[in-house]
Amino acid sequence: MSNNIHLKQGLNLPISGAADQKTKKVLVPDVVALKPSDFRGLVPRLLVKEGDAVLAGSPVFADKMSQNILFTSPVSGVVSEVVRGEKRKLLEIRIKSDRKQEYVDFGVKKVDEMSAAEIKAALLESGLWPCLLQRPYGIVANPELKPKAIFTTAFTTAPLAPEVDFVVKDEFANIQTAINALSKLTDGGVHVSFSTDNACSSVLSRLENIIPHVFEASKHPAGNLGIQIHHISPIRKGETVWTVTMPMLAAIGKLFNKGRYDVMRKVAVTGPMAINPCFIETLPGLRMNEIQEFYGNVADEIRFVSGDCLSGRNIGPEGALSFMDNQITLLHEGREYEGFGWAKPFRFNQFSSNHTYFHWLLGWLCPDKKYDMDTNLHGGERAFVVSDVYGKVLPMHLFPVYLAKACLAGDIDKMEKYGIYEVLEEDFALCEYVCPSKIDIQAIISDGIDLMLKEMA
Known about the structure:
The protein is an alpha/beta fold. It has helices at 116-126, 164-167, 172-182, 225-232, 246-258, 359-365, 400-409, 412-417, 429-434, 441-456, and strands spanning 4-6, 23-26, 31-34, 44-46, 53-54, 59-63, 66-72, 77-84, 90-97, 133-135, 139-140, 150-153, 190-195, 211-216, 241-243, 265-270, 278-282, 302-306, 313-314, 327-332. Strands 1-14-13-12-15-10-11 form a 7-stranded mixed beta sheet, covered by helices on one side. The mean pLDDT is 93.
């Protein structure tokens, strides 16, 4: 395993709407929505009914396949609505907050005196176990397994993504506690990735009991955990690793240091359609209608994305912030038709990854120019041909086109051969962006992972 990794491939999107590094307000949502769909492969079992009173940390639903994995309420209040879809599929549990934020008392614990089994039990009981995701497949970690290693990252490269140092600048002690706890769950240690920009300056560089790695890269997707794991310790068939984000590490630390389930976090409101983009301190499950001050009265013209613009989820104006996300991106719905756009080389308000629009001249003259990007595809799907376009933006030693075609064919042997164990959809987000054939490659990879879960799990 190398501690210094240099990556050349990638692409940074010069999109407008970066959040100012200031917290505008603390917002305890009036209603929070817990969504089982935030967790891949989860079959939920409802534990509450409408009208039940809950505290922050009270169980709301469980994993039907593993009953000891609980999902708990981030607020105290009353279960106001259970939303179901076709065939009574559980879509959301909505909890109306009482704004008091009363917590279940799990008790302050000394991590140094706890065994691995006791740490697992505490995480399972509190509902913080789902913070740990398992690879392959990006599912909630199996508490019966011991992972090869645990990975987290101290930098991000996704478009408009909030800087990790700012998001967790007051959480150093809690993160250290969480790392001390998680290090007891694996023999491979807790690996933390830094970039050359923050390897020395970041407060997180002072963390103890970690295995640090420095990535000499400034382009997306170097900040993706999948890319980092691929270069630090590739996942082979039969191996598992766990991942966790820094905000979730802070929540785990607060469980042991304060004895409560507290997933309050800084969330960046970003994007070209955001009014005064900045940070708010809030909870997962925040409904988009509670941040109307950031987009005004034009909800019909906006695509609401939980996460970044490349790999986030389109949740709509009535949707809610996903459990793992700390970014909201507001994009203009690109419904406008542009006639003969392919024949216009001088399009100074359009970004091109391959210099098609002569934007390279503007980039040389105005290196800080940002573009008000929208959701317009500027064309339709075409034949899926083999090319080297994906390889220029994907810093992984695999064949992305062949992997995508193996997923389309449902060929499990070839999917294994071409690296399905090492990837998630987000790793292919840039491939989708630069694809000349307009192929929805993230959906293809997602379907491939779902097939592997069905056939191989």
